[in-house]
Amino acid sequence: MPNFSTLLTKHNITAVAIGHFDGVHRGHKQLLSRLGEYGGLVVIDKNKANITPKLKRAEYSSYPCFLYEFESIKDLSGEEFIALLKRDFVNLKRIVVGFDFRFGRNRAWDKHDLVRIFDAEVIVVDEYCFNGMGVHSSTIREYIKNGEIAAANALLGREYSIEGEVVKGQGIGAKELFPTLNLEIKTYLLPHSGVYATRTRIGNKTYGSVTFIGNRVSTDGAFSVETHIIGEQIPPTAERIAVCFVKALRKNQKFNSLFELKEQIQKDIDQASQYCGVCELFLGKK
Prior knowledge:
By secondary structure, the protein is of the alpha/beta class. The protein has nine helices and 15 strands. It has helices at residues 26-32, 56-61, 70-73, 78-88, 111-117, 137-145, 149-156, 173-176, 258-273, and strands at residues 15-19, 39-45, 65-69, 94-98, 102-103, 109-110, 121-125, 129-130, 133-134, 160-167, 181-184, 194-202, 205-215, 223-229, 240-250.
């Protein structure tokens, strides 16, 4: 684990793990376990919708992250890329990578070239499997896009979470249905449209919730991400919140009246209440 008593910077870090680290999932944790207390992550960032955008990776890895924009390094040779890292991390003594690591222009260099080029320790970590399945960010992304939240969470080793700013909704929730917090989500990969049992974090407190993603086909047809806090008054000062997905409840569907919609939302709330009280995942489990 990193040395929290010392501010870790490029100047005192002695080990780095290199990769995209989208999700910081169970497989990535195998690389992190080889870093030691003076470690950091070299994150190759492609600026796409992510499971863990930008420096959010540091929150889940507990290591400092140093972003290298893909566009700025894609034309470097393997030798040039390693030379860049050695200039940036002047005390670098160890590089940790995954079994399928490739780098340099057109991904033409591999783990064997890394051993040849880097004149210190190289650790190559084998593929990690969980419940018989290889753990990869691409697989997790597909699960999330398909709304298979339980499967995605199992490979992540945590509940999938998104964050966004609270924005004004259509205005009928609190008056005719149930009050919701409407979110503007910019950089996260969104689950498939539907209704989910969730946990919503506002400040330092987490609430049981039910969250809708998709077009409001029963009202104005607009796309929205909105969450209802179960059994609690919504804090009026909420500006930015996080939503953790626990279980998919149902697909998006159209109702003929607000009365029918409200009845279904009540059923969603009752169902979500059964799942959002206790986390089934051991977040530190490998």
